[in-house]
């Protein structure tokens, strides 16, 4: 799976909701793929996402979601 990085900046308020979303498109004609898309979906649905939060400086929080 790819690593996807997206950065957002805003004036955060404690009442703000933060939503992370990602979309992946698979090449259905790639002969080197070992699973079809339905198998990948089933595999990912069976995993528990892990969320890691780190603060590298007073103004920066990094959110990492690993599936």
Overview of the structural elements:
There is one protein chain. By secondary structure, the chain is an alpha+beta fold. The chain has a domain at 37-66. Helix content is 13%, strand content 22%. It contains one helix and two strands. It has one helix spanning 37-45; strands spanning 50-57, 60-66. It has a two-stranded antiparallel sheet. It is elongated, with a radius of gyration of 16 Å.
Helix/strand layout:
Blueprint: H1 37-45, E1 50-57, E2 60-66
Summed up:
By secondary structure, the protein is α+β, with helices and mostly antiparallel strands. The chain contains 1 helix and 2 strands, in the order αββ.
Radius of gyration: 16 Å
The counted number of beta strands is 2
Sequence of strands across the biggest β-sheet: 1-2
Tally of helical segments: 1
Secondary-structure element pattern, one letter each:
HEE
Mean pLDDT, as a whole number? Answer: 81
Keywords:
about 70 residues; 1 helix; about 20% strand; elongated; alpha+beta; two-stranded antiparallel sheet; single chain; about 15% helix
